[in-house]
Amino acid sequence: QSTWADVFSNQCFYFLPLEFTPDHLNCLNRIVVANDGTVSDVLNKSVGYVVTSASEWNSSHDTVAADWPHVLLVNCDWLFDCHEQNRCLPIEDYLILNS
């Protein structure tokens, strides 16, 4: 079982900035950092997760997927739920997939 501080250990996140208010971004950033994760200000090859507020695929995700095929696009609820349950939850129900 993970301790509170290592839920997102060795994981790097990028938040799609136009999808969140500054307060929401600050909250997400605090959750990731408090749980030993890393937040990147730019989308690069160290990023494993792109966090979105969307619950379904949209056209803004096309560019992310085309330019960064290695990343997983995930709904922000995954971060909140992992933090709330103090463990890294299975990501499948939170993934945003291009159907």
Describe the structure.
With 99 residues, the chain is of the alpha/beta class. Helix content is 31%, strand content 14%. It has three helices and four strands. Strands 2-1-3-4 form a four-stranded parallel beta sheet, with helices on both faces. Strand 3, helix 2 (59-67) and strand 4 (72-75) form a beta-alpha-beta unit. The chain is globular. The N and C termini lie far apart (34 Å). The model has no long low-confidence stretch (mean pLDDT 92).
Give the topology.
Layout: E1 12-15, H1 22-34, E2 38-39, E3 49-52, H2 59-67, E4 72-75, H3 77-85
In short:
The protein has 99 residues and is α/β, with parallel strands linked by helices. It has helices at residues 22-34, 59-67, 77-85; strands at residues 12-15, 38-39, 49-52, 72-75. The termini are far apart.
